[in-house]
Write the structure tokens for this entry.
Amino acid sequence: MSVSLRTADAPAAAPKARVFRTDIQALRAVAIGLVVLNHLWPTRLPGGYVGVDVFFVISGFLITGHLVGEMTRTGGVRLGAFYARRIRRLLPAALLVLAVSLLLLVVFLPYPRWERGAWEVAASAGYVENWFLASMSVNYSALNDAASVVQHYWSLSVEEQFYIVWPLLLLAALAVARRTGGPTTRRGARARTTNALIMVVAVVGVLSFAASVIYTIVAPPQAYFATFTRGWEFAVGGAIALFGSRIPLGRMAADIVSLVGFALIVFAALVYDHTTAFPGYTALVPVLGTAAVILAGGGYASLWHSKATALRPVQWVGGISYSLYLWHWPLIVVAPFVIGGEATTLSKVAVLAIALVLAALTKRFVEDAGQTWGYWRGSSRRAFGLMVTGMVVIAALVAGVLASFTARVEADGPPDEVVASTCEGPSALAPGAECADPFGAADYSVMTKKNEYFYTPDECGEFLPILTYGDLKTTHECDFSRGAKDPTRVWLIGDSHAQQWQGAVFDIAENNGWIVDTSYYGGCPVADVEFIGFRSAWGAADVERCREWSRDLADTVAEDDPDLVITAMASRLQLVDDGSDRPQIDQMSQGLLDYWKRWNDEGIKVLALADPPFNAEVRSPDCVLHNADEPRACARPRAEAHPRDPIVAAGAAAGSASISVLDLTDRFCDATSCYAVVGGIPVYYDADHLNLEYARLLGIEIDAAAERLLTQSR
């Protein structure tokens, strides 16, 4: 495909002929170094993720320079040839690593992770992984999924989408300039073209930056992955390509500007962390830092930093940066499963060394060879054909993995009844239990369908129309009454930490003929509090929807007048701020108590379940997998794993016999430590929730607590 415009319309200030720039290669080395070190040692370099933004600016600069250079020479762009060059440059290595990552997934990771991982491989092959992750970021359950082996392909997806759209926008600018009236002289035509290019870069930059700032406030998880929140970073690079040569910098000024640029990048890498609202306006720091380094190096072959940045090792790392980016992440994810334990400093260094070797080999034999291979180098059509072939091969491999996953998962399912024998599961920590090895090896360590805390039986039917907010449906009615005339009615409410108890509650309901209404909103408290987020701040729209659900639920429960409300939530991780500067635990416990007393005043009994000890906050979620023979290695001090719980604090202040808090901490911990395996059964299903089997085995104690409340007179 070739799109041509009159040569007279070529830009007046086209970039100079492309020359190799050691400063840009050094920026690549800095960028990949920040990303890899952040992934290996996240607490040491918490903001290393800004290396991705450095790459985005570099891409915007180089691609814009290339496109405008071709426009200057020919008056247009051969789009087919441009896209074919991108295919030859990027796809061979990308598809190779995807295929190997899929193999690593199947060979080393437990099969319940195959489905999500396979779908992400497919999304990465189609360069839409960023949108896949953005869609998953609004799924609360998905937030607890372990990182996939190809999660890092999100940034490559953003870049590829930029490569598709950006030349079309620049060509549109040239087309507008050609059709715009005005002076017909060569100078007039060039002025119109220049103005049109300025307009494209400015409009994309301003609109995308505004969207980035707003969306980072409104929907932070999605904003991180969205293409439109990152477009301005490419536009900044494009602006430097177009107009950098017009900004005269003396040698001393260039030295200072480059120094400031590198300092801004390093500052962001050291100071930013996972709590930083990003991208938004905070991304200006690494983006402008990168732009400053590129701008300063445009007029000089050597600057103050050249003695360091032009060193062969730095240039070598910059040269393999693309392949190193591809390889490092799947190796990091797989390494603990290969060595059978949590990553150590030695294993991390080994991962880094292996990634460097693989990157060097891939650079030489795949990246470089792919660009020079004669079969497709002279034919854009062949390049596109081989691209499609490669994607079809990946799709076929993905389909095979998904089929294998489906066959295995169909054999799993929770049993109809769970009965604990002596020393099995939490009974190993029951008073008077004398078990030889209560914290020994588990009977199993891989979590399958039978362990899913969110398993919902047929008695629950479809979602009810009440307490629905757009596409968010929260509420079921689960009828175990078998047609009884006046069954006990119970509500089970809260976030997913209430849902993790539903297996036990449904067992009780089945035995006692209850009707159980459930309503869950992931991460959201059922309390009269000024909620602001779960673990970190949420976007304004999500915060307001959570607060609305919590208020509506309180009213709905009061109007329904059930016999009992069972409530639970991750109240230690839910962030609240009423402006009083009171401790979080005080604000949350008071907010919980206000709801409980309101229901209690209307004759409704309340049973609150204290939250179990932390899992991912204190150990790797895969700790039991990595220490199957000796799960005591996963034990953590009780004070660390189980800090004060607002639910327990609220219960202590309730002062009502009709409000009860059931604290089952002693079924997870002894006097000194909390465990990930008790009585041969893994305690946790994932990073944040209980294993369904373990929760069901605690049902006898929940049943007893509920019975004590229900037998009280109203």
User: Anything to note?
Assistant: The longest strand covers residues 489-494.
